[in-house]
Amino acid sequence: MPSFRNTDSTEYTSAYEPLATKSRPVYPQENYYIEQPNSPGSYLGPIDDSLPGSDKAPLLFKPFTVKDLTIPNRIVVAPMCMYSSKDGFFTNFHLVSIGSFAINGPGLIIQEATAVQPNGRITPGCAGLWDDAHVHKLKEVVDFVHVQGSKIGIQLAHAGRKASAKAPYTNHSESDFWLDNVVAPSGGEHLQWDRHHRVPRALSVEEIQEVVNAFGSAAARAARAGMDTVEIHGAHGYLIHNFLSPLTNERTDHYGGSLENRARFLLEVVRAVRANFPAEKPILLRLSASDLVEDVVDGPSWNLEQTIQIAKWVRDAGVDVLHVSSGGNTAQQKINAVPGYQVPFAERIKKEVPGLYVIAVGIITNGKQAEHILDEEKADLIAGGRSFLRHPSFALDLARDLNVKAAFSQQYSRGRTTHS
């Protein structure tokens, strides 16, 4: 296991050439902002104080603290791919998209899966953090979120055998893809995710260490951008999940076979990220708790019992919060997507792994449902994805469900009604 150190430096190096600064004047007035007396989404009291239980704040709208990160409520925007980048760069789209969440009250926003290597992107349109040049626009996004009084993290990822896929709404030329450099723990046509994905090749041990180092370097860049937290993506059939699951890891060296060996890559990534991100800031990890193939695949697969053991190991290695999902590792999965369908996974992990906070996700669509999950101690935080795409003000919708008067961004305060 190599040693790691924080690589934070003011001396950036990049493969990309910036535009000449004289091409656009810089006006300090453009950085002016309105102070927010309360973070959007903070609890201000009940909407109707005559209703039962209105004398206390619901758990969903109580502040939550882990390490030096304090958020005003327990609502998290889950990372969602936007396929809106070129060469990994963040753009004004990201500023507006993430900014729209920031002014509407979630406690924490986690930015989309962001590749730590160019061939770790899911598609050519995915975001990246493998180059120092990526920090500039990312910091602009972070700074905007912070002046709204909100908090932000970023999901660091490598797509593994699901990389070099077609973006859903962009036509890329063939030269934009990396047809022969889709990597996984093991290779071969039988490990192709489906006929629309590439045939992966197996990583060498040296290449594995390069990926581990890339996660550490990306964490250092996230720190330079001012991120409040980082989330390691170990779910949904991407590279870390590929190593963890016996369905996709056929290695016979010390990265395959036993659970300890299959977990080795993840634990090295966790240690690299922890060494390169400020110690006072928390680290999150997203895991799929199951491959969801128990009824359709013969032989061993990834399941909840293994996830519980992994959760204990990553807790000891430096992970503070586990974001619990499921599936994504094989096209043979069977998902019963009903409201709260992934919450039982989060509940088991929370009960069996003390000292590790847990985020629940999976069709949690209203305030009473979310509050029940917290009240029953099934999770510590609630995440949503598509709900925020439908309604960027989803956190304020949850507040209304629970008779909560939540803080609005001052510029939006005239939108408050007697029922909000």
From TrEMBL:
Give any GO molecular function from the UniProt entry. FMN binding
Q: Which domain of life is it from?
A: Eukaryota
A Pfam entry, by short name? Oxidored_FMN
InterPro entries linked to this entry: Aldolase_TIM, OxRdtase_FMN_N, YqjM-like
Q: Which keywords annotate this record?
A: Flavoprotein, FMN, NADP, Oxidoreductase
**Residue span(s) of domain NADH:flavin oxidoreductase/NADH oxidase N-terminal:** 60-402
What is its cofactor?
A: FMN
Protein name in UniProt: NADH:flavin oxidoreductase/NADH oxidase N-terminal domain-containing protein
What is the protein's species of origin? Entomortierella chlamydospora
